[in-house]
Amino acid sequence: MASQVSRRKVIQAAAGSAVLPMTAWSYARIIGANDRIQIGQIGCGHRAAGHRRMLKMSSETDSKFDLRSVCDLWSVNRERASDQVQEIFGKRPKTCQYSEELLADSGLDAVMIGTGDHQHAKLLAEVVKAGKDCYCEKPMANTLEDAKLARDTVLASKQVVQMGSQWLSDPYQHKVRDMIRGNELGKIVSISQSWNFNGPRWHVPKDANIAAIREQDTDWTRWLLGRPMRPFDPRVYFEFRIFKDFSGGITDQWYSHGAGLAHFYLDTFIPDDTVSNGGIFAWHDVRENPDTFQCLSTFGAKEVLYSYSTTFGNGYGDHTIIRGTRGTLYSPGGEGSPQW
Fold it and tell me: What is the pLDDT averaged over residues 48-55?
């Protein structure tokens, strides 16, 4: 049994060591030391390339898995992914344009989703309905309707799902929580995060992919996946994070990590109230989502004030500060900095 449990380590992905445990059904398929966990990828862009590198790192301690298949709407991404799998694992995977093709494979155990953010929830529901375990990049959803779809589908299934949220597996952040739990800082009064960037985040004027993609080489309608129809736009395709129909921008990307850490430190979840403000103050380019954002929340039962801010106008002074009645923890640096 111990050797079977250790195989869970192979499905580590994205930031931190997020592990996707196998279900009892998956364990039942493990008939001997030579049986291998079969993994597929939906979405083969930049994030998925990182997943493949993480799998390669995992294989150094437990190699009993195969990256069996890759799926992407864009033909160039499929070819790149196939080439990379061949290079790092020595075996070329199956390639699919559509998720239905990948999920029809009865030999597939688990799927890693690394598509555009607005596609996550619907694909997650599709994967789970197909009887596969799933690792899904954050955000799980950016509309309430999609969030409920994913949640209800997973809870009605026997599958195991792991969401990728950065920093929560970082030993530094676990030490911070241990100190708070141990009352070393006294009563926590406030948490403040200021994570910034000096540049037009998520907008690359001369992106080679934007220049390379052609509508006939992908499926634009499928990529939209229920979002409002618009003409094919390579910029939207690759820079969806700055367009309102597909992302909240800073809130989907960085604030979700910051708030996740605040919840983690405090052993709590939804704040009692939140107010926010911001706008496009620095980068008047093609973006629709703010480049400057600030919000303030209160956790009533914990009596904690939580503040978060991001500007893409200047990165000076990034920090996280946790203030207690007996001490303060201070970390210079931006997103998830371990410099406590």
Answer: 94
Alpha helices in 60-157 (DSSP H): 75-89, 99-103, 120-129, 144-155
Would you say 331 and 193 are in contact if contact means Cβ atoms under 8 Å apart?
no
Tokens standing for residue 169: 């597996």
Please name the residues in contact with 171: beta carbons below 8 A apart, sequence gap of 6 or more.
Answer: none
Can you tell me which residue has the tokens 């291998």? 36
Cβ-in-10-Å burial (0-12, 13-18, 19+) of 74 comes to: buried
- Tell me which residue has tokens 């052993």: 267
Residue burial 136-171, b: 16+ Cβ < 10 Å; e: rest: bbbbbbbeeebeebbbebbeebebbbbbbbbbbbbe
C-alpha span between 159 and 329 (Å, rounded): 39
Averaged pLDDT of the chain: 90
pTM: 0.87
For the chain, what percent of residues have pLDDT higher than 70? 90
Cβ count within 10 A of residue 301: 8
Residue-range domains of the chain with CATH: 2-164 (3.40.50.720), 171-201+246-332 (3.30.360.10)
CA–CA separation, 210 vs 227, rounded Å?
A: 20
Q: Taking a C-beta distance cutoff of 8 angstroms, is the pair 110, 137 a contact?
A: no
Tokens 């997973």 found at: 154
For 261-309, what is each residue's pLDDT tens digit?
999 999 998 999 999 999 999 999 999 999 999 999 999 999 999 999 9
Q: Give pLDDT tens digits for 120-157.
A: 999 999 999 999 999 999 999 999 999 999 999 999 99
Residue 30 confidence (pLDDT) above 60: no
Element (H, E) at 310: strand 304-311
Tokens of 101: 């093709």
Residues 6+ positions from 121 with CB-CB distance below 8 Å:
140, 141, 143, 146, 147, 149, 150
